[in-house]
Amino acid sequence: MALTTAPSSTPRATGPVRTPADQRGSGRIWQREGLAGYVFLSPWLIGLLAITAVPMLLSLYLSFTNYDILTPWSEIEWVGLANYERMFTSDASYWHAVQVTLSFALIAVPLKLAAALGVALLLNRAWRGVGLFRGLFYLPSLLGGSVALAIVWVSMFNRDGAFNSFLGLFGIEGKPWVNDPDWALETLMVLAIWQFGAPMVIFLAGLKQVPTELYEAASVDGAGKVRQFLSVTLPMLSPVIFFNLVLETINGFQGFTSAFVLSNGTGGPVDSTLMYTLNLYIKGFVDLEMGYASAMAWVFLLAIAVITVVLFSTGRFWVHYSDGEDR
Amino acid sequence: MVTQTEAPAPTAALAPTSARRPSGTGRHLGRLLILVAILAVVLYPLFWMIGTSVKSPEEIVNNIGLLPREFTPGNYSDGWSNFDVSFGRFFLNSAMVSLLTVLGNALSCLLAAYAFARLRFRLRGFWFAIMIGTLLLPGHVLIVPQYILFRTFDMVGGPWPYLPLVVPQFLATEAFFVFLMVQFIRGIPRELDEAAKIDGASPFGIFRYVILPLSRPALVTTAIFSFIWTWNDFFRQLVYLSDLEDYTVPVALTLFIDSTSQSAVGPMFAMSVLSLLPVFLFFVAFQRMLVEGLNTSGLKG
After folding, report:
1. For the complex shown, is ipTM > 0.95?
2. Nearest residue on chain A to B208, judged by CA atoms?
3. Whether the model pTM is above 0.80
4. What are residue A78's DSSP bridge partners?
């Protein structure tokens, strides 16, 4: 590293010969390492500026206007806080979307994590074929938020879908779940929970890190399986649980594809699947109220930031790091 | 693509486990039975999708079984040409967007990662913090202004409508991959850089002859996840593509939902199966290299 910090004012040709590297002529090149750094960084910097920073400023500005893509730039009207006011006071569908999104995240995320942890515990043993099992449980996550899976899901929970046929075997009469405002969102929750493979794999990696001696010590102390789970597994796993919780919560708030497919882009039936991002899409790209949509985007960003901060600040009460730094 | 942080995980899925003390065969059998039962529920929708894709319209309504009584492969050819534009075109469009995205992400993210991991320059810490910040930025927040910008430059629905989908990928906007590669490059011994430097290599030479060849596992990981995420991405493709001919597979699939006829269900399922096939095959083909890439990049949890 000494070479890189060589003073740049020393011209190589006249300066004293100090190192083999200087003799070979690389010293001069490395004196410009700072320049090289920016050359390598330039695609990212351009992207940051053009694709992220400028759009962010633009959307902040637009959120105070009534911009609707059709009006020319010169005629954009500054409306002050009107968009935000409308959002918080007079737009019933906005609050409905907030409610839908919150209930989706609050119910689906914990159940998904519970399913992931449960199956991970069952798979946390070495035996022939365990790898295949893990791969198969991971499959729904791999196929992820694809339109095809959402289509299959909607068909399964239709009036004459597979789920109702299954209920029919027991003489239970099903209902058109996806068309029922009371149940449409629940079918989407089940879809999200079904894709528990990704957090499961992370749990498996975490479980491997728990030292076997801790279980041995616990069982010497007379702890049963349940007690071992509560006193050894859960605390040792808490950093991984926390990681999954943050990731899945942020993901949960952004659910779009399945809600779009189920409602054919409307958020129906009766707004029951109007996820926040779907609502934003409708306002911005269907109703062309881009100023209003920008305001919604900024509130969304702030909400995610607040939720992340809240998660991190509650984390210190229950996340334990094995190096003893419980902070 | 930005919205989907689900995938980076299959490390442990395929890696061997540390052996625990052997338990009784009975207990093992019990656990196995529970697992098989859960797996049956998990896999049922996928098998049902494949089964339905070869059922006749009547059977789709009244046959609950996974297997069709009457094998109807015609759904595939019907679905393929169900719209004015053939599904072959949609697949080509998707393939093009996905492959360019893979190329763009691999290239631009590695350049940025090399700078962050190895080079000293002013404000490096500051830029690195910004990069980590963008990691948490939801894609939905930027979609409206990005759309407006691309539209202002005539890139939306222009002569080559995929520019808004592809250009950002060549500018390392996918911070997740930059971060992954920074972690990976940090694991490459610095002695190799030093040796090359003593041999007279410039920063560019070190990138070309040391970092680039040794980063193959990280590049493969990036390629796989960019491919899968882009192939499955719906939100951005829905926003930017407006002409039927330009549609990618996910956008084209939603056309089936618009057509309300019962007879389109079989073809819809056939095309859904086909749309998932590339992702599945890609994963199967590269999973070994993927595990290597994630293990060595310090993302192992």
Report:
1. no
2. A40
3. yes
4. A65
